[in-house]
Amino acid sequence: MRRPSFSHGPWLLLIFVLSGFAGLIYQSIWTQYLGLFLGHSSHAQSLVLILFMGGMALGAWLVSRRSALLRRPLLAYAVIELVIGVLGIGFDGLFQGVTGWAYTHLMPGMEGTSSTALRWALATALVLPQCILLGATFPLMSAGYMRLQPGSQGEVLAGLYFSNSLGAAAGALVATYALLPAVGLPGTVLSAGLLNIVVAILIYPLARDGSAPAVVTSAAPAAGGVRPETAVPVRLVLLVAAATGASSFVYEITWVRMLSLALGTTLHSFELMLAAFILGIAFGGLWLRRRADRMPSPLRVAGWVQVWMGLAALASMFVYAQAFDWVGWLMRVIVRSADGYVLYNLASAAIAGLVMFPAAFFAGMTLPLLTLALLRAGQGERAIGQAYAFNTLGAIVGVLAAIHLLMPLLGLKYALLVAAVIDIVLGLVLLQRLRLAAPGRLRSPLWQAGALGVAGVVAAVVLVRFDPLVLNSSVYRHGTARLADTATMLFSRDGQTATVAVYESTQPIGRMRAIATNGKVDAGMAVSMAQAPTSDESTMILLAALPLALRDDYQRVGVIGFGSGLSTHTLLGDQRVGRVETVEIEPAMVEGARLFGERVERAFNDPRSHVVIDDAKSYFAASPRKYDLIISEPSNPWVGGTAALFSDEFYAFVPQQLNEGGVFVQWLQLYEITPELVSSVLAGLLEQFSDVRAYLANRGDLILVATPKGTLPPMKGSLFQQPQLRGELARIGVHSVADLENALSMDDAALRAFVPLYPAARNSDYFPTLKLNAPVARFQGAFTRDFQQVMTAPWRIVSAPPTGQVTGAAAGLPQPASSRDDKRPTARAVAAFLQGEVPTDAADADWMSAQALRGLAARCELDGSPMETTRLLFVLAGETIPFLPAAQRAALWAQRDWMDCTPADPVVSASLALVAAAATDDHHAVLTEGRRLLGSEHAPMLLADPATGYYLFGAMQHAARQLGDTTASRQLTDQYWKALAPDARGNGPLRLLSYLAAMGRQPVSETEFRPSGHE
Question: Which pTM was predicted?
């Protein structure tokens, strides 16, 4: 029987690259799977790392006890890869089945620690078996390879370490950038399973050809004055392996948190950081591969490597301090496009590499060197599993210490410093045990290493400062590497899942106090009640006020996300509200919010308020009681762990937690997001809720109010009878139900029409469209303007229900400046000017158009340029008719006292008649006059003009919709849509109106008529 020769070595290394590739796919994807069950992704990452390392430690330890007894380690390796592959193929179905069963049958009735313990136990059961098997692969492959190449243990160990790490780095990137977008979580984990099976098939021919005796290496002789390796206790080497594993993972977790502040808390940035770290480890193994077997004392080299690793970690602080300026420069010079985002990711990878690669390079040498020392000391193949097991056990300690002890207590800088000191001390211990006979202390390696270590620590402590104003600058969004000099940091805490800061800064309204997570501001409020409110205040108050206007009896309310605490505070301003449970996953967020003081005091002091530190979905699932109202106001969807609160599965889960007649309120950003991504969220929400309304708090914040059964009730004014709540609402200019209704942007029909106009893949937990694409939209500075444009369109696409009340503005009550466009003042000013008064509030463009039209009318020259007159009429009609009371618009456009002459030109006459009909809601006349215009010789010019074609086509579609004439609507689109100017065809409100008119009152189907924004 032929024994494989050395020529199989490259094949074994290549196969182990594939194994590492699959292994890191598992770690990356398990993090996301468990994040769906455990909550915030930082917790999931921690647990996956602990399970990953713990399982591998156990697998390696088990192999260390049996390796020497195996005749064919490579055959055992092939079997294990096969089993891993089978488990990987079935993982998705098993996960969904187990977690669904837990949510339905186990968790209801369980609260607090029992619920948490159950979730963690099930998560452990789901991934630990594969982790144990993965831990067995490195020792088995190493043992099998070394038996084939017995004289090159160092080369084998370092080569395998390099190949496996190289595959792991590639796996992290391919999973995130290629597999996940293409096939989702199920397809990605399936791909890893299939790859494991391919590895098993490839290794089998090399494993079955024969066997070789186990490697038993005797002690190496002393060389160069170094004591023999047998003089070093095995226990010390294993303890060093454990301690350096701990320090390495403190580095990784701390660096990830640090770089998240500079690069952003996204899935892409995390995987880039992970790949940079693993790539450093890989190249450390590569450098060692050809040198290890020539080293007389691996432990002496390991001692120096530990010292240099600690020094490199200290040096990373100096590099990191410059990272914010680098990112700021990138944000200023890179074009904000999809291609620009690719460049930004490449640059982010380079920055992560500069910070992490040097120390990781040395980390890639430690385990092969320590294992080689044990082999030379006569420990045999069991040394491979022992060193690997202790190293991974140390990694578990490092994960726990970094998250729960070092970062919360010491902060990022000193967490990294402690890990660096540990590595330097480990190096000194090894050098002390192997001290050389040197002519003097100054030339002693121990003293030299000690001096370097002390100098590095002192330099890092004295010269490096992590400025909170830099760390919380959100440079990855705005390109500014530091908050303004006028900013004052009030609170900064490195929590378990995020870095939380509270600071004051100067804004146009005055001083603003903001709370931020990982640099991204989650809420900002004016410091003084004498100042105008911020747009965030309007959002947070309306999140509570809108549902309070619908019902009087909310006995149990759940709020997802604490933020500043203002939404909870506002809810508790209504004495009709019972218990309010606010679920927040980061304790530091609640602690920081206390600095908002009296503005949020009820959230902390009202006995009805209960703040819970937990994952919201798991907490609600475990609660035995349902809710009358749930308000979800998490952070932005691109933030790690947040996209799951905007998914199909989440919206299917919420109705199960609501009582009969319950209400759900969802905050959704409109800034840094595309209409397609908004559509992907709405699609999931609308499928589970029978009636949904969208309210605009300001240009960038949308509030969705929904009920799973029936329709939402009309708003009532009883909430204004609550003194505390009335005061909060008055601050943002809301004095009546009419003011609340004026925030309505789209009703249920409009929302259901919006979704097919912007086709997008559904945002599912298992196909995370939002998590993958929201970071791109953020980088591009995307903005969804449709909801604002619908409210300011020339035709009433959505009309607020009549309330019988006047708005606060109409009653002369104070109205703070709002970022939501209000066309009413401009409409009144234009009407006043045309009717002979002096305008006060007209915008420049409207003033010029009104002046031009009035001048033509005064000179009886409306017929002089029919196309220009028509354009002016349509523009000003669109700026006034939807925003004036019926009597006022009829006086302006139907009676037309401001016109001294009656035009004779047929185009001008028809245009005036159409505008008059629109002003008096005579929809039949609008269609009649519109057809006259479209039948004239000027029709192509009218339609091609962006302003006239837009208004004319929209006015006719609006009339058709009001009449329920879907045939007229579809004929208009069929005949004239392509004749419109590109700007008109791409206009969101016009497309929405045309869709609604064509559908009539029929259910919306994505396969039915849909006007395209393109040719």
Answer: 0.90
